[in-house]
């Protein structure tokens, strides 16, 4: 086979260039100690490195989320601890005011401090985080969670939304604590009421408190189904309780309804999960205690639902709702929207009641006309101030009193403390019942906040555990990337030396061969 001089030169130049490129690539690898510098170095390995890089970036994001979540939860826990401390002081004040020796002036001083505690707790509930977001408003981070109504009660303006952050593959954690969970779901122990029905004029001889719920399960399963109850005093030492159907249920009361007639004695009657404070106040000259006590009767029931009404700012008239009450319990139970309602006037006398929120497809649940100065819808009568106009709307939120936020409890305690009772044993006994209800609600609120703190602690543990998992994954990721990308220094240097030696040999061989020709043989 004949090889031309041009062909030989071309082949040698191509081989030399290829080997030279390999040597350059190896030199670059030796400099960076990375086997893959471009995708062409190893397409499969480069693709795997891309996947690992994405995983590493995701792990970094998870770690950033974990740090953010820890910071947020730490601030929330600190705030809740501060509220708990404030409530402990409120409880101390309540106990001091209820010790039987405090005077009206003492109680007024306690009320002033308790009012300051209420404002402190309100400020803490409306706390913001470092980013200026309200911590306990759910997803409504630009809305103050709590605001005070015209009647002195407080409304929760946030929602129940939990804001989640990803902390691992398929794992999220709630980074917020809603006011609904921490404050609004506090069990209201004072959700029953007693009202004297006989005699027509209270003679002060029998004082029966509104009661507090001592055993919620028994209250829910038995008490609510039989109300309203009639508590009748047969004598100074025996009471009788009948349910709404007239059945005698006295056997379910403590000591089968036997009470003490000791003057001013403060005793407790337990009935279907409700603890009632009872005082028999015999007066001088009551020679026949049974005769003066017999015939006193009370109606005992759950506190009826109340309503918070808000006038829409765009209403064309100046009409307001001045009061509201249930006038038809059956209609109320059957039709009134428990999630909130909107009362909408279509004229000065006609109105519709809708379930909130009102949409284009909403249908009224009740309709009617104004009678006098009141409007009755779904069993609830609303007292109107001024004449309404077409387009007037009022937002209505029912309160079943099963729960009560601590701000309302503190407000009720302040009111009770500011009420004079010196020299009035009956007023004092009613005051003691109100304070015991308030103290019970403070304990319930503290327990609710404690549950929220426990939830924060549980989430903190999850974050710590996931941090360890993410660190392990990051370490494995780095190791795997290194095994694919990084070079063995010894192997690279050996290969570079070999390639450089081969280039030098090729140069020398080319130089020698290129000098050969037929003339060398003559």
Explain how this protein is built.
It is elongated and about 145 Å long. Helix content is 45%, strand content 19%. It folds into three domains: 34-188 and 404-486, f41 fragment of flagellin, N-terminal domain (Up-down Bundle); 192-303, no CATH class; 306-399. The model has no long low-confidence stretch (mean pLDDT 87). It has helices at residues 5-32, 43-97, 104-125, 179-184, 216-226, 289-293, 329-335, 406-418, 425-485, 489-514, and strands spanning 146-148, 154-156, 164-168, 171-174, 192-198, 206-208, 212-213, 229-233, 239-242, 265-271, 274-280, 297-302, 306-311, 320-326, 341-345, 350-355, 366-369, 374-377, 380-385, 393-399. The chain starts with a helix and ends in an 8-residue tail after the last helix. Strand 18 and strand 19 form a beta hairpin. The strands form six sheets. It has a five-stranded antiparallel β-sheet with strand order 13-20-15-16-17, with no helix packed on it. A four-stranded antiparallel β-sheet has the order 5-12-8-9. By secondary structure, it is α+β, with helices and mostly antiparallel strands.
């Amino acid at each position: 086979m004949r090889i031309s001089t041009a062909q030989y030169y071309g082949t040698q130049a191509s081989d030399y260039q290829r080997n030279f490129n390999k040597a350059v690539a190896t030199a670059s690898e030796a400099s960076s100690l990375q086997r893959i510098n471009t995708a062409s170095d190893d397409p499969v390995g480069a693709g795997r490195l891309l996947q690992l890089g994405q995983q590493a970036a995701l792990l970094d994001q998870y770690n950033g989320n974990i740090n953010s979540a820890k910071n947020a939860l730490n601030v929330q826990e600190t705030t809740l601890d501060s509220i708990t401390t404030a409530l402990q002081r409120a409880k101390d004040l309540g106990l001091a005011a209820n010790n039987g020796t405090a005077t009206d002036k003492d109680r007024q001083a306690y009320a002033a401090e308790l009012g300051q505690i209420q404002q402190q707790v309100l400020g803490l509930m409306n706390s913001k985080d470092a980013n200026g977001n309200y911590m306990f408003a759910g997803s409504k981070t630009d809305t103050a969670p709590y605001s005070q109504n015209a009647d002195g009660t407080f409304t929760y303006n946030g929602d129940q939304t939990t804001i989640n952050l990803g902390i691992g593959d398929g794992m999220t954690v709630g980074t917020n604590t809603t006011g609904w969970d921490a404050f609004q779901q506090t069990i209201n122990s004072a959700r029953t009421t007693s009202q004297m029905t006989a005699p027509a004029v209270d003679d002060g001889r029998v004082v029966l408190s509104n009661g507090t719920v001592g055993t919620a399960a028994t209250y829910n399963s038995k008490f609510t189904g039989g109300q309203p109850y009639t508590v009748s005093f047969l004598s100074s030492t025996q009471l009788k309780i009948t349910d709404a159907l007239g059945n005698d249920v006295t056997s379910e009361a403590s000591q089968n309804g036997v009470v003490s007639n000791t003057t001013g004695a403060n005793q407790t009657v337990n009935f279907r999960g409700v603890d009632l404070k009872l005082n028999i106040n015999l007066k001088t000259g009551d020679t026949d205690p049974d005769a003066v006590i017999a015939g006193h009767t009370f109606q005992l029931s759950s506190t009826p639902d109340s309503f918070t009404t808000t006038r829409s700012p765009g209403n064309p008239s100046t009409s307001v709702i001045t009061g509201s009450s249930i006038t038809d319990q059956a209609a109320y139970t059957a039709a009134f929207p428990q999630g909130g309602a909107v009362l909408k006037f279509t004229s000065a006398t006609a109105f519709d009641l809708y379930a909130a929120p009102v949409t284009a497809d909403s249908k009224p649940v009740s309709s009617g006309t104004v009678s006098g100065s009141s409007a009755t819808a779904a069993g609830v009568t609303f007292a109107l101030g001024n004449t309404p106009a077409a387009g007037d709307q009022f937002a209505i939120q029912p309160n079943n009193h099963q729960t009560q936020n601590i701000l309302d409890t503190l407000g009720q305690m302040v009111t009770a403390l500011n009420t004079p009772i010196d020299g009035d044993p009956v007023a004092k006994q009613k005051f003691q019942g109100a304070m015991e209800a308030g103290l019970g609600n403070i304990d319930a609120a503290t327990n609710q906040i404690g549950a929220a703190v426990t939830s924060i602690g549980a989430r903190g543990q999850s974050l710590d555990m996931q941090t360890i998992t993410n660190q392990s994954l990051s370490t494995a990721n780095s190791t795997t990337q290194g095994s694919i990308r990084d070079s063995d220094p010894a192997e690279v240097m050996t290969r570079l030396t070999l390639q450089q030696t081969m280039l030098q040999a090729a140069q020398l061989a080319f130089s020698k061969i290129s000098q050969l020709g037929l003339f060398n043989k003559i």
